[in-house]
Amino acid sequence: xxxxxxxxxxxxxxxxxxxxxxxxxxxxxxxxxxxxxxxxxxxxxxxxxxxxxxxxxxxxxxxxxxxxxxxxxxxxxxxxxxxxxxxxxxxxxxxxxxxxxxxxxxxxxxxxxxxxxxxxxxxxxxxxxxxxxxxxxxxxxxxxxxxxxxxxxxxxxx
Length: 158
Description:
Elements: E1 18-21, E2 25-28, E3 36-39, E4 46-54, H1 56-68, E5 77-83, E6 86-94, E7 99-103, E8 107-116, H2 124-132, H3 135-152
Antiparallel strand pairs: 1-4, 2-3, 4-8, 5-6, 6-8, 7-8
C-alpha cells in the first residue's frame, strides 16, 4: 500500500528547514602522507529537519495520519519536500517522534526529522549542460527553438 502525506496539510516551513546528506565516503588516515578516501555507497539517505505550523483541525489530521498510516513514524511515505531542484515528491520516514508546541493558544508547531531514501538531483547530463551554459542562456535558446518549431517552420512536425 502506498502511503502519502495528507494533501490537505501545508508544506513544512522554511524556518529551521535543513538537509543533511548522509556520509557516502570512507576515509582512512595514513601514517605518512594524505589520507585516502573512497566512495562507499552510490545512494545515501539524507536527513531533513522539518517544522510545520498547523491549526487545530490540521493537527488532528496529522496526529491520526501519523498514528494509523505512518505507524507512529515507522513507515515510508511520499511527501513533497524542497530541495535543490525545487518541490519534489520524495520517499521519506520519520527518524524520531515529532514534538508539538502550542503557539498563541491556537496553532501547533510540529517539529521532527525525516529520512529520505535518495535526494533528488539533476541528472549527470543536465549537470554537464548547466556547467557549460548558464540557465538564462539555455532558457533563451529553448524559447527560440520553440518559436522556430511552432511558428516559423513552413509545416507542422508530427
